[in-house]
């Protein structure tokens, strides 16, 4: 066999393997907008937002933060 043909086959095999890997990764992180990034401020904000389940909790947290602000000003 020709050395050039062997090299082309090896490069094509690596390219196909990389494409399969990237497709697998995209399915693995399909519901994660950060694609598995750790320590991202946006991801932390989204995680905290998911913990707030009801509008009542959101309103209560706003009121609590307003009270803290008022207490700090005194």
Keywords:
74 residues; mainly alpha; 76% helix
Structure, described:
- The protein has helices spanning 3-28, 41-51, 55-73.
- It is rod-shaped and about 80 Å long.
- The mean pLDDT is 79.
- 76% of the residues lie in helices and 0% in strands.
- The chain is mainly α and 74 residues long.
Task: Give the topology, please.
Blueprint: H1 3-28, H2 41-51, H3 55-73
SSE order, one letter for each helix or strand: HHH
Terminal residue distance: 86 Å
Q: Rough shape?
A: rod-shaped
**Total strand segments:** 0
The share of residues in helices is over 70%
| SS-derived structural category | mainly alpha
Radius of gyration: 25 Å
User: In what range is the share of β-strand residues?
Assistant: under 5%
What is the mean pLDDT?
79
Low-confidence stretches: none
Oligomer: single chain
**Main sheet specs:** none
Count of helical regions: 3
Summarize the structure.
Helices cover 76% and strands 0% of the residues. The mean pLDDT is 79.
